[in-house]
Amino acid sequence: MTRSMFHNAVVTGACGGLGQALARELIGAGACVALVGLQRPALDALAALAPGRCAIYQPDVSDAVAMQAMAADWMGRFGVPDLVIANAGVAGGFDTAQATDLSVMRRMLEINLLGAATTFQPFLAPMRERGQRGALVGVASVAGWRGMPGNGAYCASKAGLIAYLQSLRAELRSTALSVHTVSPGYLRTTLTAGNRFAMPGLLEPDDAARRLLAGVAAGNEHIVLPRRIGWLSRLLGLLPARLHDRILLGQPRKPRVGEPGATDIPGLK
Question: Is 186 one of the catalytic residues?
Answer without folding.
Answer: no
